[in-house]
Design goal:
globular; mainly alpha; about 10% strand; two-stranded antiparallel sheet; 3-stranded parallel β-sheet; 7 helices
Amino acid sequence: IVVSKDSPYNTFEELLAAIKENPGGLTCGLSGSYSGHHITALKLMDAADCEFTLVPYNGSADQIVALQGGHIDFIVGNPGDLTPDAEKYKFLAIADEERGSYLPDTPTLIELGYDVTNSISRGFATPVGVDPAILERLQKGFENIANNPDYLADMAAIGQLADWTHGEDLKSVYAEDSELYKALLEEYATE
């Protein structure tokens, strides 16, 4: 949860108080409709029992420009998109289970009393029926990359989280997430 450096809000609690004082009055920029940012914003509204206006953009670059230009009040964004220009922002909270090394002074929403976590994962898929030997080789290769110390250092340097999940486990995670996301989207659907 990020505001511009010129924002009157210095903490998540200050931002949330303003949101609750004026339901629907503050605007939250998203990198797109139905994106991971959108889901995180819906989870936050649900957990904090609050309402703000969601403003979807065509990607994180547009959302960041809108924040810098003062067109929106705050964003739900990727640390990796923001930390290169960290001096332009106030990072109020992160939606992770633990503070990240990239923003060690920024509290998690869990620390602040809101059970909100979310991540945007990327996966690789093969066609159904791919040769099992090829699938195994691909899985081993991606696992080796994901555990490579140089790769992990590069990811940390740009504020990107790196995590490896095996394909079968990832299918389970996606299935669980899908049910949660469906319920949130149905609850907050607009005409």
